[in-house]
Known about the structure:
Blueprint: H1 2-61, H2 69-81, E1 88-89, E2 98-106, H3 112-121, E3 127-130, H4 132-137, H5 139-147, E4 151-154, H6 167-185, E5 191-192, H7 201-209, E6 213-215, H8 229-239, E7 244-249, H9 253-268, E8 272-274, H10 276-282
Parallel strand pairs: 1-6, 2-3, 2-7, 2-8, 3-4, 5-6
Amino acid sequence: MLWQDNFVKRNFCFKLFILIVFSLIxxxxxxxxxxxxxxxxxxxxxxxxxxxxxDKFWQKAKKEVDKSVVEILAQDQAELAKGIRxxxxxxxxxxxxxxxxxxxxxxxxxxxxxxLSVLKKYDVKATFFxxxxxxxxxxxxxxxxxxxxxxxxxxxxxxxxxxxxxxxEVAVEIKACGEVLKNITGDAxxxxxxxxxxxxxxxxxxxxxxxxxxxxxxxxPGDYESPGSKVIETxxxxxxxxxxxxxxxxxxxxxxxxxPQILEYLMGKGYRFVTIDEMMxxx
Length: 283
């Protein structure tokens, strides 16, 4: 009958409508679940992706190659020619017979105590540019350096070439090291040396904005290559001059072995050893 046919049709349409609605609800739930799952995966992957991204910069940037004095002076002259004056310190007063002895890359448990012992014997004050991750591992050595009256400077947290990492990571490296040193000594460091002497406009501006004076050098014997104790001594003594800043490394046995002879010779020539702070104050 007609009314029966109409009833069947309406019943069929109603069931079809319910089925469609139910299907849409289920599909929507799956889509949200997939979206949440994808977001969760992205969130979980993000730190790993970031670490992987930065690791390639770190591996490339950790290679130890210090700039030569000629390269440092050439960069300085190029900056001055363009009217650029970064907040940095290259040497002391050439009219004064003073020398600043600086040690990079420490502290090292096998070498720092020996260096401190030699410096104490000759009553010499030096400047130590420390790597944050090393300082965090050996805080007692940092305290010993600070208590002995030596200057403590920032040499980044991971000892990386700052010109080879993303710009946003430069401040992180400098800040992290500074916080470690302040927590250990109670004093915020204000001296900064970029690893390898490598810096560019961004690095210099970040360091200055953080309150640091960037310190470079006039004498680099290349002791990190361990060329021989006598070679290290000769390279230092042959080119030393008033207001000189000597770069050597904490962690090189050949340097430790020859340090007494270097100190004795220069003191015998009338040179006075000062910290970077003293040298900057005297200039």
